[in-house]
Amino acid sequence: MEVENEASCSPSRASGGSREYKVVMLGAGGVGKSAMTMQFISHQFPDYHDPTIEDAYKTQVRIDNEPAYLDILDTAGQAEFTAMREQYMRGGEGFIICYSVTDRQSFQEAAKFKELIFQVRHTYEIPLVLVGNKIDLEQIRQVSTEEGLSLAREYNCAFFETSAALRFCIDDAFHGLVREIRKKESMPSLMEKKLKRKDSLWKKLKGSLKKKKENMT
């Protein structure tokens, strides 16, 4: 289910000419951010993923008959302010804030992320969607749909309940974020003046993530 809203963006282009969208996955460890991302890009559910690992993914899709190149950063950890998280929030164009409907604490942490983004970007006009994952585990649900809708209204953002295990509403969540970004694309924004800086920051961030992964192997 979905609550519509408006949002903002800074446009850039992938090498093939498609519009590139810098997407950041936010949420507590273990809520299914990586599983959602893997299902979106490869239609596969991972057998295991370390919730402390951060990773990057790329995929190209068509949304509303327009090509879209998604550069997705899957973050780890809790809703706390760190130097690396500040870089994510400065470089990202849109955010998917995730929680598990089976974990109330993850919902409480999700409620903090918009303020963390505001601390970095100094504006609430940032494209984001709120996602309640793991609805296939309805029998152990701790967060109601109504609570998710209420937080989405507070955020003035789109809301989806998903199941990464069943690949339910996964595409809807990512496509919904792209649509939110597109809504503000033609609107005047100071962020557009910072496009080159944001692209440089994003590349630096991806480079740091790559080095971190290499050091772990």
Topology at a glance:
Blueprint: E1 12-13, E2 19-27, H1 33-42, E3 55-63, E4 66-74, H2 83-91, E5 94-100, H3 104-121, E6 128-133, H4 145-155, E7 158-161, H5 170-183, H6 195-216
Parallel strand pairs: 2-4, 2-5, 5-6, 6-7
Antiparallel strand pairs: 1-2, 3-4
Overall structural class, as computed from helix and strand content, comes to: alpha/beta
Distance between the termini: 40 Å
What is the CATH class? Alpha Beta
Over the alpha carbons, how many angstroms does the gyration radius reach?
Answer: 16 Å
Task: State the total count of DSSP E strands.
Answer: 7
What's the multimeric state?
single chain
CATH fold-type name? Rossmann fold
3D shape = globular
Number of domains: 1
Secondary structure: helix percent = 25-40%
- CATH architecture verdict: 3-Layer(aba) Sandwich
What can be said about the biggest beta sheet?
7 strands, mixed
Subcellular location: Cell membrane
Catalytic activity: GTP + H2O = GDP + phosphate + H(+)
Keywords: Cell membrane, GTP-binding, Hydrolase, Membrane, Nucleotide-binding
InterPro entries: P-loop_NTPase, Small_GTP-bd, Small_GTPase, Small_GTPase_Ras-type
